[in-house]
Amino acid sequence: MKKYKNLVVGCGLSGAVMANKLANELGETVLVIDRKKHIAGTCYDYKNEYGITVHQYGPHIFRTNSKEIWDFLSQYTQWYPFMHKVLGLIDGIEVPIPFNLNSLYKVFPPQMAAGLEAKLIAAFGFNKKIPILQLRGTQDKDLHFLAEYIYTKVFLGYTLKQWDYTPEQLDPSVTGSVPVYISRDDRYFQEKYQAIPRQGYTKMFENMLHHPNIEVRLETDFADIQKEVSYERLIYTGAIEEFFNYKYGKLPYRSLDIKIETFDTEKFQNAPVVNYPENYDFTRIAEYKYFLNEKSPKTTLSFEYPENFEEGKNDRIYPILNEANQAVYDRYAADAKTMPNTYFIGRLGAYRYYDMNRTIANALETFKLIKNKR
Ligand code: UDP
């Protein structure tokens, strides 16, 4: 039986960061396993025959305010500086998302927009971000009209497609991450560092995992590997409920059926991502050549069709955050706490809607915990 100091289950972002730190900083041996045929989890990308780098699981734009995280990843990739922009098709008009003061002037006549702009600034202040559920609580008649307009046109249809729930049925943080922005800033994110790995995410993962102490085994299941290897510490980035054999019941997730298509035209849309809250069954279209400014006479797009996660059919992509699901997760988390030398991290291990930045932060915190325990 081969011996490793660490077994890391899952070769997505949390697993790769942990393996890297355990090998580089502690000099420990690490076996990383993944069920899939590829590394990098849902960050996986590849260059297609048209020279366009496609994100197989939908668009990933890296951003962080943390210099520690930025410097950590910068050891493993060069960057293409990229400030993400999203347009939403509202009443047939392309408007900046998050909905901001520029969006206001796109959808309303100038005088009406000016009146609403003045009221927004007076009520909340310039450069403030207001979650839609909070904006809906305003008493002012005009602001109430505006809130209902944005709620209906930007959030309701999109959220029903994405989650099969209304915004109020989900944890407020879900729609709160795309707040109405009282500003002229058309960027989707405001973080200090925003970029795409210049050689792609997959290459960045390869570099992170390139260490004599790290071994990666793909198409390998946790259940099978336990008969073959021994380990002292377990980092589990898979679904926590699966680890515990569903003893408190299933935790629901949304998944995505992503259709990738190449069109025989140089450019399809006016932004890297266009959201369709009101039309079609997909939520958004991403046009990949934008992300690394790749040139091609053709263009490759992804169409995201959300659907429920079903074992054996698709992947767990989004934990569905609401009180009932959190209560089930808490029972698993309580059991997890009692297990020595075992850590559950990442979107599936922690049942959190982490973006890449928070995933890395979660892994680095866990690593520090392990390091200080030794
Ligand atoms: N959202 C929406 N309309 C939009 C954009 C976002 O209703 O045009 C809501 C929706 O509920 C979505 C959430 O805000 O799931 C978070 O959006 P984000 O773009 O951050 O989602 P992700 O990129 O993680 O899929």
TrEMBL record:
Residues 153-353 form the UDP-galactopyranose mutase C-terminal domain. It comes from the Bacteria. InterPro entries: UDP-GALP_mutase, UDP-GalPyranose_mutase_C. GO terms for molecular function: flavin adenine dinucleotide binding; UDP-galactopyranose mutase activity. Gene3D superfamilies: NAD(P)-binding Rossmann-like Domain. Keywords: FAD, Flavoprotein, Isomerase. Its cofactor is FAD. Belongs to the UDP-galactopyranose/dTDP-fucopyranose mutase family. This is UDP-galactopyranose mutase. The lineage of its organism: Bacteria, Pseudomonadati, Elusimicrobiota, Elusimicrobia, Elusimicrobiales.
